[in-house]
Amino acid sequence: MNISENCINLIKEFEGYKLKPYKLAEEEYYTVGYGHYGQDVNPNKKYTKKEVEALLYEDVQRFMTGVLRYDKLYHFNQNELDALVSFAYNVGSIDGLTAKGSRSRKEIAYFMRKYVKGSNGVTLEGLVKRREKERELFLTPVNSGLIEDDLQSLSGR
User: Is 5-154 a domain of CATH 1.10.530.40?
Assistant: First the structure.
């Protein structure tokens, strides 16, 4: 299983896009691109779009690995995977959200709305919007088309 463009687009929408590294006062390292953060970010370099896209896909793969640790319990569909990878990309993991695999899907969807505060404890409108979009995607059924195809074949269409 792999992430879809829904996941990438969601991350891009909420992470923003910066080619010049920046550092928040409370952070140890710099951030560049679509929220790539770490000691590997060179603060004196202007990155290209191709470089930040590569960092995005590397980061997404890392967070997808963390999400897929729970796939044996949940058997995620595509929309659930995409939403949870976006969530993990922003928060760091889904361990707390899933209570390490002990929450139901309904509880996961409920608790997504709780992750809306910045490091200072203040609710951030951008996180409220992001969590709503992630939750909406998480709760959207994947239409495989099998039932419609079966009905059409039965009716002779």
Answer: yes
Q: Could you tell me the residue ranges of all domains in the chain?
A: 5-154
Cα distance between residue 143 and residue 128, in whole Å = 27
The structure tokens listed for 142 are 């994947």
Residue 120 has pLDDT above 90, yes or no: no
- Region 39-54: mean pLDDT is 96
pLDDT in tens, 81-116: 999 999 999 999 999 999 999 999 999 999 999 999
| Cβ-count burial 13-41 (b if 16+ within 10 Å, e if not) | ebbeebeebeeeeeeeebbbbbbbbeeeb
DSSP secondary structure code for residue 37 in this structure: E
Measured at the alpha carbon of residue 134, what is the angle toward residues 86 and 32, in degrees to the nearest 5?
A: 35
Under DSSP, the state recorded for 142 is P
Asked if residues 123 and 117 have their Cβ atoms less than 8 Å apart, the reply is: yes
∠ CA 136-5-27, rounded to 5°: 80
**Catalytic residue set:** 15
Q: In this predicted model, which residue has the larger pLDDT, 156 or 62? A: 62
